[in-house]
Amino acid sequence: MKHRATVLCIRQDCLLLVAKRGGRWAIPGGRRKRDEVLSRAAARELCEETQLTAYRVDYLFQFWGAHTRHFVFAAQLSPGAEARPDNEIARCRWVKLRDVSRLPASIPTKAIVQYLLRSRSSLHRLQWIAEEYENDPLTEEPLEAHDASHDVSAPTV
């Protein structure tokens, strides 16, 4: 099974989605590199795909897809930061959470958003986070809130 760091960026009631050329909409994220902490992978993938630098990344929950285990994080962005597609990403778009189900989006994206909408506590945590987890869910190593702005391995904008 693949492991993926999936990064939720929420502004008001909108979620940031990305799409590859000719692809479905998806929540930003991707695989972690060897020995990379999941929170750093989340920050790195967000920056690689959208040119956004998260100043904080917090672990929220896990979502199990058919072939992929998603470690879902919430990213805090600077208020005026703008997403710009980069690398394999062709489009970035802020979408109202309730409208994601009507888009041509990936199955995990629709399922994660549906979970957020049904679970008011998770949605409330996104608006903003009280960290409950002490260990990285994959490595069991101590997990600290990751400040991506001081991460030398994360690309900067």
From TrEMBL:
Nudix hydrolase domain location: 1-118
Cofactor(s) in the UniProt record: Mg(2+)
GO molecular function per UniProt: hydrolase activity
Organism for this UniProt entry: Paraburkholderia diazotrophica
Keyword Hydrolase applies: yes
Entry keywords, A to Z: Hydrolase
Superkingdom of origin organism: Bacteria
InterPro entries: NUDIX_hydrolase-like_dom_sf, NUDIX_hydrolase_dom
Signal peptide: none
Pfam annotation, one family: NUDIX
The keyword Hydrolase belongs to this UniProt entry's keyword annotation: yes
Protein name: 8-oxo-dGTP diphosphatase
